[in-house]
Amino acid sequence: RDLRMSRGLGDVYKRQRKSSAIKEDLKNHTTNFQEISERYGFPSQKHLYNFCVRHLGGSPSSIRNGTENTN
């Protein structure tokens, strides 16, 4: 049980680091969405979109433009 708990916390930490890195790359206007999708192992841009909406509060475009929901 403790192993599952620590594994879960590790997953949360990895997701937070991945989220931060993706957000930084999205704000870098020279990197296109396809490159970001490939860099972080998403099979398609749609998967990147879904990840951003779920974990970052908005679409990749809204994050890039600074209009994502930060609540």
Question: Beta-sheet strand percentage?
Answer: under 5%
Assembly annotation: single chain
Radius of gyration from CA coordinates: 13 Å
Major sheet characteristics: none
Run of helices and strands: HHHH
Count of helical regions: 4
- Classification by helices and strands: mainly alpha
Average of pLDDT: 87
Secondary structure: helix percent: over 70%
- Assign an overall shape: globular
Task: Report how far apart the termini are.
Answer: 32 Å
Q: Total strand count, please?
A: 0
Return residue spans where pLDDT drops below 50 for at least 5 consecutive residues.
none
Describe this structure in words.
The chain has 71 residues and is mostly helical. The chain is built from 4 helices and no strands. The chain is globular and about 30 Å long. The protein starts with a helix and ends in a 6-residue tail after the last helix.
